[in-house]
Model the fold of this input.
Amino acid sequence: TQYIYNFGGGSADGRTDMRNLLGGKGANLAEMASLGLPVPPGFTITTEVCTAFYDNNRQYPEGLKDAVDKALERVESIVERKFGDAEKPLLVSVRSGARASMPGMMDTVLNLGLNKETVKGLAALAGDERFAYDSYRRFIQMYSNVVLQMDHHSFEEILDTYKDDRDYVLDTDLTAADWQAVIVKYEAAVQAELGKPFPQDVHEQLWGAIDAVFGSWMNDRSKTYRRLNAIPEDWGTAVNVQAMVFGNMGDTSATGVAFTRDPSTGENHYYGEFLVNAQGEDVVAGIRTPQNLTIAGRQRQGNEDPSLEEVMPETFKELTAIFQTLENHYRDMQDIEFTIQEGKLWMLQTRNGKRTAKAALKIAVDLAEEGKISEEEAVLRVNPAALDQLLHPSLDPKATRDLLTKGLPASPGAASGKVVFTADEAERLANDGQKVILVRTETSPEDIHGMHAAVGIVTARGGMTSHAAVVARGMGRPCVCGAAEVRIDKAGTAFTVSGRTVSAGDQITLDGATGEVFFGAVKTIEPELSGDFAKLMVWADKARRMKVRANAETPLDAKTARGFGAEGIGLCRTEHMFFDAERITVVRQMILARDATERKAALDKLLPFQRDDFRELFTVMRGLPVTVRLLDPPLHEFLPHTDKEIEEVAQGSGIAVDQLKARAKDLAEQNPMLGHRGCRLGVTFPEIYEMQVRAILEAACEVAAETGDAVVPEIMVPLVSMKKELAFLKSRIDAVATEVFADKGRILDYLVGTMVELPRAALIADEIAEEAAFFSFGTNDLTQTTYGLSRDDSGAFMPFYIREGLVETDPFVSLDPKGVGALVEIGAERGRQTRADIKLGICGEHGGDPASISICERIGLDYVSCSPYRVPIARLAAAQASL
Ligand code: ADP
Ligand code: MG
Ligand code: MG
Done:
């Protein structure tokens, strides 16, 4: 096997696509050398050597040493210097380079090969003693820190004291003699701490550095980083050994970093910084303030210092020509490191540059319009999850802010408003035209109207999948959850946080993308949904196979969803329509009814409310399919809790308070999630579903009559686990339909189907499909029931599972491909066996998660459905999944 790949001197053994073997840095150095760009010659020791090293009890493979010697000779002959030579010494850098860039790995060692003898040779060659001793002291400092693991403070202290004693301010104030004196002190420090002198043998130095790179693969920092980023241990790192070039040889030398486009905005202008007479990481280290690359760049920043364009115009031209070459070659924005040695330009690194979501979008669209990449590639270049940041208002980066506390970033977007502590108060003030932020210890379904009325929500308890988080994401309300320091006082008039008190009516601002909560109003900026965003969406829609629908029940959410390109509603949860203040009492009367007559009386009052809701919703969605789920949640969610609530219900229904209390007690369940809910309610109280179906179909007929454009209602029965449940309900639904159509003198298309959300339903999907015209996989409940894991209680242990690496991601956030995904696949397959054209979709949180969407594409579902604000994300993710 080949352990070593050479580069530089006009050719290279490696290529960009060999990144697994050569690491990112090595592969790109080789590619640049092949392109004929000025790359200092060197070689890469492969990642396979790293793997072999660990497989073989930290022994290098036989022959590696000879191969390194040979590769070093090649470099020596190209640059006409010799490693360790007293007269013409070759110096090298030793650079780590894994496949994926990995903080925590060994830092680069520069100027390796210097010792008491070679430093003199370097001084003579350069005709500059100061430069040579400066380089040597840098080397001692870096090598001692990185390879010998000494604290760099020891050296900084020596240098600071030396400068203070002589009233020096800048490092450039030190002369050659000064550096020699500092070196003596550095060497003494090494001797004192390690009990042996700084290594003078250049081969010992080289192998020390190589050992340190390979050793750093298994240090704690690297291991942690790999675990958090799911990088396998057996990837290994490569080591790059490369001839040094010097940016610290006086005023015609410099070192810098650059991006071929602006990494924060995506603007097509060069963006970068450099330092004259400097080396390596001086630019990032912030010792001196770096200068801008371009005139335009320094003007943008109001920087007076001359740019590279002004200081070294010729080199600048050469450099920017290389920017173009590299960008055209890699067909992406590049992040570049370069050094200028006495006017000669050298390229030290290139890679696809990291960028903000905004920049990613702009760069992808621009590159496609410039004809450098195809529209499909542009679609693949933008991370759908990152779009989330772009679809919501964000805090003005220039605005001043006063941080109160931080919780979980539960639902993105930024909002300012007055603090309120109850849902009713939120609704009252919102109706008054005020902006409010609802602050709760936690939220429950009864708070939904208040969450809707608020511009943002903060909770003290609860995780990323808590009620507040799920509902807020669904509504597109910014939300910070689990802000654990927030304590709401008993009276509910104020909260305290880190010693400060915030009262009802005070202004606060939250940023749901970061989890931060601020005191006062912070200026926000609106998202830009036209332009690049719109263009990318058009390209995504061309590539996409699956349809994208939204989960929505209010006309407002439905409008938002249509605006974001939803092609129907995949889940309208009718119970959300029940929590409205005017109706909840009637709903409670219905639930607490002692017999069918009482129930019927309450249902008759509810029917017009429901019909009006559907009329509004169907008007917004006309021309598109709308899936309406019949009543689903456990009844306890609607039961009155307080005496006041019980009294209200008693008054409205004429039932005695005591009787009501007894009835509420009867209805209490041990395990409501697995109790009397879903179609089980429909089976035991058929009149509830009959009322809902009537409301749906009457509304559909009326909207069709008014607009001439009908929705196709898809009536969805929840929580089915047997064919007979669905058969029982379907015959009643069809009977109501016949009645309604006769009344209205109009026949409409409608479908009856079911939510597949119990493992048994997935397993006997072939039977259920005999009754169901469509399946919508309810993966929230399917995850709960497949894992036997309560979503509302998993917050107590799921974070530990994630931290300890037992699960990669919360299965409520990203669909579990092995278990839950398998059930979806089985359900889809068996459903199609019975009914080839059965409509298949997914609703619930997973429908807006890119990884889950790609599983849905693989299974061949017809559509995904997600909250309105995630519709663009789902459109992009679905497009990527089909490419
Ligand atoms: P990182 O991965 O932290 O960026 P690098 O290996 O890229 O580490 O090295 C950091 C910096 O060191 C480079 O940007 C460059 O300025 C300098 N450097 C590395 N190798 C050389 C070299 N052969 N000659 C001159 N400078 C070098
Ligand atoms: Mg570094
Ligand atoms: Mg680098």
